[in-house]
Design a protein that fits this description.
Elements: E1 12-21, H1 25-40, H2 45-48, E2 55-59, E3 75-79, E4 92-103, E5 108-116, E6 137-145, E7 148-158, H3 167-199
Antiparallel strand pairs: 1-7, 2-3, 3-4, 4-5, 5-6, 6-7
Organism: Sphingobacterium anhuiense
Protein name: Activator of Hsp90 ATPase homolog 1-like protein
């Protein structure tokens, strides 16, 4: 986990966990396959979440929606509740910067790490299109150990993005980012992690 989750250096951090126990390792392995599929099915995250709020869309660098599992360097366009980012037509953007999949004798793990990034559909604008600065990361993990599955969200280095060219963007990012730091983002990520967990309980 230490190598998967970036080191906390500044700003806020956020963690959410869910654990599911199964009657056998074999059943847990079947559940891990389903959980891994769900983790990579970005377009379904808002349906999987227990309390859907933000809508996530997997897109290419032209903003065209992709209907396939998540891959390294993909972009995710996020429509969050509340005021949108003016210069990006209301969307926040993140990029898939790291993916890791391991299958060892004692455990299996799949992780995805996201970072705020510029809007890829506007290549002339290099400013981060997100309420957090580019140093922030969001890491989602599903891990199997014996007959247990662990689901985790780890937000690190969550610093408000308020040094953009346009003042209106800074005001919006301050409002939304401050809300996230004060706890508004916790229910969203907790709902998604809980949704991942609940989706495999009937295996």
């Amino acid at each position: 986990m230490k190598n998967i989750i970036p080191t906390q250096k500044e700003g806020n951090k956020l963690d959410c966990f869910e654990t599911v126990e199964f009657t056998s390792t074999e059943i847990a392995s079947e559940a891990f396959i389903i959980a891994s599929y769900n983790l990579l099915a970005v377009n379904e995250w808002h349906k999987i979440a227990e309390l859907p709020a933000a809508v996530f869309k997997l897109v290419d660098n032209n903003g065209l929606e992709l209907h396939r599992p998540l891959q390294l360097h993909d972009y995710i366009k996020i429509d969050i509740p509340g005021p949108g980012l003016p210069r990006t037509k209301g969307y926040d953007w993140v990029n898939v910067v790291h993916m890791e999949s391991k299958e060892m004798a004692e455990f299996k793990i799949l992780s995805v790490s996201l970072k705020p990034c510029p809007d890829p559909t506007d290549p002339e604008n290099k400013e981060t299109a997100h309420f957090f600065e580019g140093i922030a990361t969001s890491t989602l993990i599903v891990e199997q150990r014996n007959n247990s599955l662990l689901f985790q969200y780890a937000g690190r280095n969550e610093v408000l993005n308020t040094e953009n060219t346009h003042i209106i963007d800074n005001v919006r990012n301050f409002m939304v980012g401050l809300g996230a730091v004060l706890g508004a983002s916790y229910p969203q990520w907790k709902a998604l992690i809980k949704g991942f967990a609940n989706d495999v309980k009937e295996v």
